Amino acid sequence: MTAARPEASVDLTPRPVGTVYVTGGASGLGAAVVEAVGAAGGTPVVLDRVEPRSGVPHAVVDLSDAQAAAQAVDALAAEVGPPDAVVTAAGIDACGSLSEIDTEAWERVLRVNLFGTVAVVRASLPYLQERRGTVVTVSSTLGLRGAADATAYCASKFAIRGFSQALAAELAGSVAVTCLIPGGMRTPFFDGRPAQYRPGADADLNDPRATAATVVTALRQPVGSEIREMLVMSSGEASWP
After folding, report:
1. DSSP state of 144
2. For the residues 74-87, what does the mean pLDDT come to?
3. For 220, phi and psi rounded to 5 degrees?
């Protein structure tokens, strides 16, 4: 009779949240992530066009400028400390049909949502690889299914999902990569839009704090374990499936 093989020792200790760079951390989902990281004992650091709430280390930067975004990462690493994780929550939209949207406005969505994500992740990689850190990118349910009058947003969010999958394969064993796919949330993201592009009063939107809590779950995975993709939404979300 063959003796049972002893199980390999696996360290399931949740990793500390550590220092987390959050793009778009001054409002919406990003601000909720900042709050959740702080509550979990981590140190949130914000990159945004506007200042976050007082007391949070930050850099004011336009993430559509890839060079400025990279410089902000290096400046914060010197000032506050290098990142253990990066969460790319910054995102904008340009609603309307492709023939009506100004070219600059359309392309700016890609520069902020996609190129800004890539720039911050690229600049953070040397620090994350030293620490076997984590990247959490933010796609959308509109990165799974297209919607009319949202060509720029859908293009950017589909691309973020593809970028995340490729990055996870490229960095396997050195940096964890999670792609967060949130449904609609009760945030200022919809403010200022024409009425037809705002959720109705009865829309079932998620609380961004609930979505942010799942980000912390990804950040605290034991070394060697990764949540590659998370689909998070309210129970009545209509954008998926």
Report:
1. T
2. 98
3. -95, 10
pLDDT at 240 (0 to 100):
81
- 139-187 confidence digits (pLDDT tens): 999 999 999 999 999 999 999 999 999 999 999 999 999 999 999 999 8
Which two structure tokens, joined as six digits, stand for 27? Answer: 């409002």
* String of DSSP letters for 169-184: HHTTTTSEEEEEEE--
Instruction: Tell me the C-alpha distance between 58 and 53, whole Å.
Output: 10
Asked if 86 contacts 121 with a C-beta cutoff of 8 angstroms, the reply is yes
Q: What is the mean pLDDT of the chain?
A: 94
Residues 6 or more apart in contact with residue 26 via CB below 8 angstroms: 46, 48, 49, 50, 51, 52, 53, 58
Q: Collapsing DSSP states into helix, strand and coil, what is residue 22?
A: strand
SS3 151: helix
Gap between the Cα atoms of 41 and 140, Å rounded: 27
Give pTM, 2 decimals. Answer: 0.93
The pair of structure tokens assigned to 135 is: 């990247």
Spatial CB neighbours of 154, under 8 Å, sequence gap ≥ 6: 142, 143, 146, 147
Domains of the chain, first to last: 19-232 (3.40.50.720)
Q: Are 32 and 20 in contact (CB under 8 A)?
A: no
Residue-wise DSSP of 71-96: HHHHHHHHHT---SEEEE-------S
